[in-house]
Amino acid sequence: MKDVFARLASDFLSAIVFLVIYLITDNVILATSVAIAGAIAQVIYARVKGRQLNFMTYASLALVIVLGAVTLFTNDPRFMLAKPSIAHFAIGVIMLKRGWMLRYMPPIVAENVPEYVTAAGYLWAALMFVIGAGMIAVASTGDLKLWAFYISVVAGGAKILAFAVQYVVLRLIVTSRLRAQRA
């Protein structure tokens, strides 16, 4: 679990840095410049340490540079605020692959209710698309406090709630199926 949070912090580091510096200084140019420099430094540091970088790391870097450049050119923070929505859309597209979630399930779940796990995978994809669309809508307002609330409380809370509901539902269904098989 610690690795998951470290990965999330790493993936959203440029957005976090941007938000913190912008809230402290109210300077879009400074916040964007530091976020771009931080993203580049993050990739260089990982390469120097010999870490294997995947497509999403390079895609994230490209988004920071492109959206950061547009933010610098227009002096408008909404472009940087929209970056996490693109990641949500990309993850949503990946989650549209049939059965993607099966490999993350315990064998008892994957063997007894694979059709429910597949359906849950599609629901997760839909959730990623909804969160991404909401993030664009919130980013378009330019309200940093609203954006910070949305990305942390709404988006994070929706994922935690979805995970909890999925856990309870799958547990109930598996238990019910196993009881029916024994009877």
Automatic annotation (TrEMBL):
It holds the Pfam family IspA. The keyword Cell membrane applies. One of its GO terms (cellular component) is plasma membrane. The keyword Magnesium does not apply. This is Intracellular septation protein. InterPro entries: YciB. Keywords: Cell membrane, Membrane, Transmembrane, Transmembrane helix. The chain crosses the membrane at residues 12-41, 53-73, 79-96, 116-141, 147-174.
